[in-house]
Design a protein that fits this description.
Elements lengths: L3 E12 L2 E12 L3 E5 L6 H8 L7 E6 L2 E2 L4 H7 E4 L11 H11 L4 H14 L15 H12 L6 E5 L7 H16 L3 E5 L3 H7 L2 E6 L2 E6 L1 H6 L5 E5 L3 H10 L4 E3 L4 E5 L4 H13 L6 E5 L3 H9 L4 H5 L1
Parallel strand pairs: 3-8, 3-9, 6-7, 7-8
Antiparallel strand pairs: 1-2, 1-4, 4-5, 9-10, 11-13, 11-14, 12-13
């Protein structure tokens, strides 16, 4: 807990009779990327709104960068940055003017303002478009400008609420690179997303939120191992070796055409070592060994009973 950028316990939020957050706990280390997954209506945006002081929780406690969320909201706001689902840029201003406006709002003047704005334009590769109206920017450029505006104050913690929604794959990957660079600089990222590949690629830790409760938490690999379907695939050079391996490995499934054998297992080092030792005892050697685990789509469906919006759209 001493290294926690965000520590929350029993957070609750309801609107009338509808419970949105039903007692969630969080413990997010400094300088890491945390991803909160969940179907539409699970409470992801409400969680962000509560932790960023935009809404008050009905119960529970939280500390953001060491500051009490309820008792020190102003101190919390000084150490965080927030980027929502839709870019909050002013279309009537240029890219540079949007950044200058943010700098002005935080009382930056003269050389400091120029240095901050110039540095962010360079970092986000927006120098060439700095003098163009934001209304002319592509979706990816608008997202980059929005995040750049969030970073004017150099926050310790950045909340990204579905930041790549609607972006093309190339723009999404550019945003991923920027997020990784931020954590390399020590910034903590709280990410909500419905793109499971995004969480898989970026997050050090993932939590799945469903009906206001966190139903699972861990690394991507830890979550995948919780879902049945993990197996080892052994490929052989001839049918004799394949048939021999199938006989000594009960529960395995041979694929005669591919000369491969599917062996149920969690893919852990001990399981794999024992498996290869059993083959070696019979002088059987696989030409290729690979570990297969369920992906986050499988995890999400198993935990919530629903596919993600991304999967439905496809």
């Amino acid at each position: 807990m001493n290294n926690a950028a965000i520590a929350a316990s029993g957070l609750r939020k309801a609107y009338g009779d509808k419970t949105i957050l039903d007692g969630i706990d969080l413990n997010i280390d400094t300088g890491t990327i945390f991803a909160l997954l969940g179907p539409n209506g699970a409470g992801k945006t409400t969680t962000v709104n509560v932790l960023t002081t935009l809404q008050k929780a009905d119960g529970g406690t939280a500390r953001i960068a060491g500051h009490d969320l309820t008792a020190e909201p102003e101190a919390v706001r000084k150490v965080i940055g927030v980027t929502g689902q839709f870019a909050a840029v002013d279309d009537l201003l240029t890219g540079a003017e949007n950044l200058e406006l943010m700098a002005d709002l935080h009382h930056m003047r003269g050389a400091q303002r120029k240095q901050v704005v110039g540095g962010l334009l360079e970092r986000f590769d927006l120098e060439g478009a700095a003098g163009k109206l934001a209304s002319t920017y592509s979706g990816g450029m608008r997202r980059k400008l929005d995040l750049a505006m969030t970073l004017v104050t150099k926050p310790d913690i950045v909340f990204l609420d579905e930041p790549t929604t609607g972006l093309d794959p190339r723009s999404r990957r550019t945003m991923w690179e920027i997020v990784r660079e931020l954590t390399a600089d020590g910034v903590t990222i709280f990410l909500t997303t419905q793109y499971l590949a995004e969480a898989d690629q970026l997050a050090d830790k993932i939590a799945v939120l469903d009906q206001g409760r966190i139903v699972a938490e861990g690394t991507a690999d830890e979550l995948k191992r919780r879902v049945p379907g993990s197996h080892i695939r052994l490929r052989f050079t001839d049918t004799t070796q394949l048939e021999a391996a199938a006989r000594i490995l009960p529960g395995s499934t041979p694929d005669d055409e591919a000369l491969a054998l599917r062996v149920p297992g969690d893919g852990g080092s001990k399981f794999l070592r024992d498996l290869l030792d059993r083959l070696a005892a019979y002088s059987i050697e696989a030409a290729e060994v690979s570990i297969h685990t369920p992906d986050l789509d499988d995890v999400f469906f198993a935990l919530t009973g629903r596919a993600t919006t991304e999967a439905v759209a496809q």
